[in-house]
Task: structure prediction
Amino acid sequence: MDENIFFEPELVFSVLKPSSWNFIPPQWSPVQQLKNAPGNEEPWIKYANKPFCCAMQNHDSPIHAYPTLQVTARPQMDHGRQSAESLMEGTIQFLGSQYDDFKIIEKTTSGIIAGCHANILKSRFTLETMQGNDFIQLGILNRTYVVFASRFTFTIGMSSSDDPAYYHEADFISIISSVRVIAPAKSNDESYT
Result:
């Protein structure tokens, strides 16, 4: 199998990373780092899903965020338009409460990823983090895709520096275009159209 392909047979999920990126163990993910840091008692950190697939691309700047990919899964939930819109609004409210300069670049509850309905949210914000003994501010460009597949809802988070010198948007487009899952069966339920 191609070393750039990640396949999870139980979840029936696959993704292809760019060759310049590296798959990393889920325990290295930013979410797991927050869970393991002392003093992080916020409920969203405590209950955040552990990613099952993570990848990143290295670069030489310690003051710019690395391009990253994290994928989580949870059992399928109702994926009608109303649920998708509620989830989108909840995500926007949450991010707005965490980052003072949170700005929406693009949002839709009518996206299609791997043949499945998807929420797509692209945003920008500043993340303050420790580097050595100093706090630094990282400009973050965030891309969140919530994919409503047949048995699972996948959340695909991809982020990078907001400085185009430290990421290639084509990498993110190729990653999301490569995602494969089992699409939900068609029904007469409330649809996205």
